[in-house]
Each structure stands twice: as structure tokens, then as C-alpha cells.
Amino acid sequence: MSISGTDAYDKALHLPPLVERALAAARAHGFPYSCRPEQGRLLHALASGADTLIGETGTGCGLGLAWLAEGARPGVRLVSVERDPERARVAAEVFADRPEVEVLCDDWRRIEERGPYDLLVLDGGGTAKTEDDSPADPARLLAPAGRIVIDDFTPATDWPPLHEGAVDRARLYWLRHSALKTVEIPIAEDLATLVGTRRRLAGTETAWQGFEQGQIVRGVVSRIESFGVFVDLDGTEGFITAPELSRHHFDSFDEVVHGGQEITAEVLAFELFRPQVRLSLAALAPDPLAEFARNAGVGRVVRGPVTKVAPFGVFVRVAEGVEGLVHRDTLTDRAALDVGDELSVEVTDINLVRRRVVLTPLP
Ligand SMILES: C[S@@+](CC[C@H](N)C(=O)[O-])C[C@H]1O[C@@H](n2cnc3c(N)ncnc32)[C@H](O)[C@@H]1O
Fold first, then answer.
1. What is the pLDDT of residues 192-233, one digit of tens each?
2. Which of 43, 179, 193, 242 has its CB 3.0 to 4.6 Å from that of 273, i.e. a possible disulfide?
3. Best of 82, 107, 113, 127 to mutate for ligand 1, by most ligand atoms within 8 A of CB?
4. Element (H, E) at 94
5. Pocket test for ligand 1, best of 59, 80, 87, 122 (most atoms within 8 A of CB)
6. 3-state class of 138 per DSSP?
7. In a 10 Å sphere around its CB, with 0-12 CB exposed, 13-18 middle and 19+ buried, how is residue 105 labelled?
8. What is the pTM of this model?
């Protein structure tokens, strides 16, 4: 956290448009703790290396998220969690016309439902900086070679690094984490950031302990947690994240699996630091979006229920397991729409890579 983060932009020149917008929101709401421009420019550069997904804890009014969104390549999705409802609302407004950006109002642990992340910025939870802030787990949350960023350190001059006269345990935790190669980057005279890259173990990633990527295995569901499902593979731990559980929408894990259930899954990867086998049930199911593209396709008129109302539009279910976005600019009467309302729409675009369906409402 930077006490004077928002004020530090008073002298900043040439800010990207989305950053200007988030800055105006932070100023209008008197939020002082935005990330500083030096940190923002670092986030902008790091975001350009992400392939699929970027996460952030502690959205504030969205300054850091704006830098990330401006730096990210097309098709990359961003998700940020803010526990303060007013800030979450303000930040969601900032990104209202950026459907690739999602702001969730919740505790930072909600970030564990998604992932793995190519880039994860810890700026409000998961940093290990205070006794009551338990650290995020990079082995679980990062994709191989994914990066984690923890900012707002004073550049270290001693070893071990000190904070207020005592050993800086948070900094040591990240610098010594066995799953990471972490470096400290001084970005201003009084400010340093830690950037950790998840280690790869060369040659061991496609096969491990008799398991192979792509192999179909059977196991028993041993535990269901808020962040995923544990599977016993004859003594080896398997793990399934929410997106890998089903291609269909579900609200809670026990709609898909239950404790003690025997399941068949595909091996995706290995978490050698835990150690653990990452599994997917969804990979074995037919892809409803590909089916929809093949059978229904662009130009088709469909009637379906609104499943989610977002600041940038509404999502409508157009087939089992397939939802499309009706952008708010195309809606004449969006205030009246609610979850469950039926809407007739035309399918105007399907993108299988970005897994996106664009819909236009019909009168
Ligand atoms: C330093 S500010 C974030 C600044 C923002 N990332 C930016 O770049 O402008 C920290 C934010 O984290 C939020 N926060 C703190 N603890 C949190 C938690 N456990 N879960 C979610 N948000 C949290 C605070 O409400 C605050 O808005």
C-alpha cells in the first residue's frame, strides 16, 4: 500500500486512458491508497507477458487494474477482488465497457476459485505482510512460469531485510519460497516490488510418478473445499479447480461431485512442490460451445434466460452450458432486466479461442 499513491499522479504525464479514468474515480472518492505510477508502469509491462489470465487482490478504485488492462494483450481476461463494497462498485464502473475485466466484491480468497494465473498481483490480501493475512499459495494459483507481484516494500540495504527494526518476515517468505524464483526490483528511491516467477522443473513436467499428461485416471473424491476438489489417486493427491470441473454452469461444487464419488479425469499437469496431480473432468466432456457453433452458429435467433446482470451488459443462456453477452449499448431497456427474464437474441459472433459469444437483442 502506498499512502500517497493517488497523489503521486499529480505530476505523472502521458497516462493511458483507462488509467486516467481510474485515477479520476480514486480522486472523486477520496481514495489515497492507489498504486504509484512507477508500480503501474511495472504492472503494465508484466501484463503484456500474460497469455490467458491476470488476477489481483485489493482492487481499490482500479488504478493497478487499469494499468494491467492497458498492458494486457487482446483476449487476456482480468479478475480483481475488493472487499469494500463501495470501492468494488466504483472500480466496476471504471471497467464497465471492458468485458474482459471483472471486479468481484469479496474477500481476496475468492481469487482462488479461478486460476491458474499467468500474473497475480497481491495488493489487498494474500501478502503475508500482517499476522492475520495468510499468504496466497503460488504453487496452486500460478501457471508454470506464471508471475506473482507483491509491492510496497522499502528497498533493502541489509540482509536479512529489516522492517521497522525487525527481520522482514513477509519479504523473506516470498524471497525464499521454494516454488518461486523471486527478485526484488527497486522502482523508486523509496519503493521496491517483489516479482516471483513460478519455477519450472525441466524435463519432469509431462510425466511424474507414473502419471502422464493427457492420461485418463480413476480416483475418489476425498475433500471438497471452496477453491477446488481433492481426489485420492491411490495415495497420490489429485486436485481439480472450478473451471476444470465442468463445462456447464454450477453454483457449488457439490452440484457436480460428492465426497466418496469415484470419478474419471484427465491429467493436466503436476504440482511438484505439493506434490499433486492437476486433473480435469471438463476436458472429458463434449464442448458445448463447439457444439453450439457447429449446430446453431452465427445468425441464429435464440430465446433464453438472463443468467447474470453486469455493468457492461447481461449474459443470456443460449444453450445448455453456453452463455452469451448482450452488450449494454445494444440494450434499450436494460434497467428492467433481471436474472431469469427471458430475452430473444441473435447470435452475432462466436469466438472459440476467447470462449465468447456476442448477442444482439431482438425487439
Ligand atoms: C493498496 S489498496 C489497493 C490499491 C489498488 N490495487 C491500486 O492499484 O490502486 C488495498 C485494497 O485492498 C482491499 N483489501 C484489503 N484486504 C482485503 C481482503 N482481505 N480482501 C479483499 N480486499 C482487501 C482494501 O479494501 C483496499 O481497497
1. 999 999 876 544 467 778 888 888 899 999 999 988 899 999
2. 179
3. 82
4. helix 85-94
5. 59
6. helix
7. middle
8. 0.63
